[in-house]
Each structure stands twice: as C-alpha cells, then as structure tokens.
Design goal:
single chain; 214 residues; alpha/beta; 3-stranded mixed sheet; 6 helices; 37% helix; globular
Length: 214
C-alpha cells in the first residue's frame, strides 16, 4: 500500500454545484496522470501529493484522499468524506463521473475494506498488533438496523487512551470499509477484557453485511 495522504489545509467553503466540481476534478486528473504515473513508478508519491491535494480541495476542502494498492487495478484513488453526511453529495458526484476502472486505476468514494483483515498487522509506537487477535462482541439492533460492538485486543492493556481508541476503530474500518462501518455500526466501545461470545473480524464482516443486505 502506498502512503495515505491527508488533505492540505484550505479555507472552508460550500460549493454550490457538486456535479460541475466533480467534472472539473476529472479534467485535472487527466492532465496530472503522466506526472502521477512517473512519481509512482519511481516510488516517490510525495512528489505529486500537492497536485492531488489541490485538486481534491477544489472539490471540497474537507475531503481526504489516498493513493493505495488497488483491489483489481494496480492503484486505487480514494476520495473520502470520512462518513460526514454533508460531504456525501460531493463524493457521490465524484464517483458518478469517475472514469471506468481499468488495469492501472480504480476509484473509491470511501476507504474500502481490506480483503482479509486477519492478515494485517498494525504498527503503533514501535509495537506490532496483529488484527487476527482482535475479538469483537456484537449486538444487533434490528429495529435501528445497527450493530453495537465492543472491541478487544490483548495489546490494549499497555496502551494509553488515544492509541487504544485508534486500535479500536482501525480494525472495524479494515473489516467493513469506511462507508459500511459508518452506516451500520452504532455504539463502539473498547473492551479491556475479552468478552464472552466474542467473534473475529471476518465473522463480524459477514454479520454486518447480512444486516446491510436486509
């Protein structure tokens, strides 16, 4: 996976025409592609960070982006509103006007799920945390269409609250993807001890996807 870039700071604004701004983004993207391809080929994505950040900020200043390894293509461009409902019309317009995916590029309007989160190991402050060790207790609220979860990892005991919170949410996004997690997860808690009846991330994914299918 390539470096994940955050947006550059930009003044707040509320553009009126998301469709027009999305079309302008893709025009800029086409013009930038040769330079982006050269930077990625040299394994120097930082050379084009400012170019892409400016284009994304022009779509909306609160959007974030990433250039990652693709699921089907070589690379994936991810433009995300980080589950902010006010930004969804911009990411929806961006996705609707995106080029068809090809062998080199695919496009996502939210951070996608990892194919197998149990194969991922997170490095935090010099320590390694295999997501295969994450255990989750899940309670389905059929009426609300949500799943409340408590997340446990054996490494939680040695972490301060901020890092523990990061390690609580990161496995959920990895298993479900940003949009499904935002749409279907209700209350998210950190468990200091492994709860009874806990399941793994792949089992959680299937449970949430089944709920989402209705």
């Amino acid at each position: 996976m390539l470096k994940f870039f955050r947006r550059r700071s930009a003044p707040e604004s509320e553009p009126a025409d998301a469709d027009a701004l999305a079309r302008e983004f893709w025009q800029r993207w086409d013009a930038m592609l040769p330079e982006i391809a050269a930077a990625l080929g040299d394994e120097s994505p930082q050379r084009v960070e400012a170019l892409v950040a400016d284009a994304v900020a022009a779509l909306h200043p609160r959007l974030t982006f990433g250039i990652e390894r693709g699921e089907q293509a070589v690379y994936a461009l991810v433009v995300s509103g980080q589950a902010d409902p006010e930004l969804r019309r911009f990411t929806d317009a961006w996705k609707a006007t995106a080029p068809a995916p090809g062998p080199l590029w695919e496009y996502h309007d939210s951070v996608p799920a990892v194919p197998d989160p149990t194969e991922v190991t997170v490095n935090l402050r010099g320590e390694r945390y295999p997501l295969a060790e994450v255990r989750v207790v899940a309670q389905v609220d059929e009426a609300e269409g949500l799943v409340d979860v408590a997340v446990y990892h054996p490494g939680f005991a040695a972490l301060d609250d901020d890092v523990k919170r990061a390690l609580t949410f990161l496995p959920l996004d990895a298993a479900l993807g940003e949009r499904l997690a935002a749409d279907r997860l209700g209350r998210v808690e950190t468990a200091d001890r492994e709860p009874q009846g806990a399941i793994g991330l792949l089992e959680l994914r299937e449970l949430v996807r089944e709920l989402d299918r209705g």
